[in-house]
Amino acid sequence: MRVLALRAHKAPISYILPLPDGNVITSDQSGTVIKWSLQIKRPILTWTAHTDSILTILQWGQYIITHSRDSTVKIWLEDKLKYEFPVNALNFSNVVLFQDRYLITPATTDSNNIDIYKLNDDPSITREVTNFSPYDLIHKLKFDDIEGRKDFGIIMKMLIIGNVVYIGYESGDIVGLEITIPQPSITQDATSTLLINRDIKLTLYYHNSFHVPNPIISMAALDNTLASGSTGKKVLIHTDPVKVCKLTNSGVQSIVPYKESTIVGFWNGVIESGNETIERALPHLDAEDMKTIVKLTYMCMRPGPASRDVVKYSTSIKREKYGDLLLAGYEDGTIVGYTVE
């Protein structure tokens, strides 16, 4: 059931980030960021963060990290810019945060590969891994899996589950890399102490090509199990063996785990949850042959008070009137909140 609508963006919604205090941060394809209070259903902060579409918003301690098609990652304290650095934005991939300290991005020199940056508290960054090629690793270890293919194409989507970063490619391949952060070693003699930092280790954990040739466009964690969607008509649950869920619509824009089920949103605007289907119609089209629905551009679950830090945020939570909310962002710049049974 639809319970709220947020309207202030003038471009298609590109990202939605629910915050632990109950507020929500949203972005659009023009580079605008808005922080919302759901209690009053109004913006409480609006700023132009980038000059192109924002692909990722992450919370890092007191900071907000934004990543855009304008080839920058920026670190913000509210709407005040604290640090920025250039990244590759030739593709539409997100970036991900590992152990709240390491930012994994498409590589600056090659959209098929990854870079890893350490985030420093000031804030600043240190590049720890440069232009690592998952394709080359698989080519070396499991050549039969990719025989006849020269690469996987550009990175489309990334997701962290535990110590593994899953990377979804334009080819339809998914690669899981286990990340090991080694402890620094300390050597001492009579006059000095030397701290030696060791390199981050990336090892092949998983490879799946069931989606080939459809590009990966969505990934989610079902507990600790990967679920993935592509431009095709299926969702894969990466158990052993892999479970294939066939769908009636193509273009799996979002996969949202909720309780014991999975909510799937499609590019065409259809959202399916169990036996329930949500379609948001364009209100100004009356002719039978012109009926259409608004295209979905982002979707996530905003947990209700029972799922969040009720001690730290007890004051604001007492005033809340919403439980768990499915937040759907649309091509017309609207964010709609739905309750899901």
TrEMBL record:
This is ASA1. Pfam families: WD40. It comes from the Eukaryota. SUPFAM superfamilies: WD40 repeat-like. It comes from Candida metapsilosis. InterPro entries: WD40/YVTN_repeat-like_dom_sf, WD40_repeat_dom_sf, WD40_rpt. Transmembrane segments: none annotated. Coiled coil: none annotated.
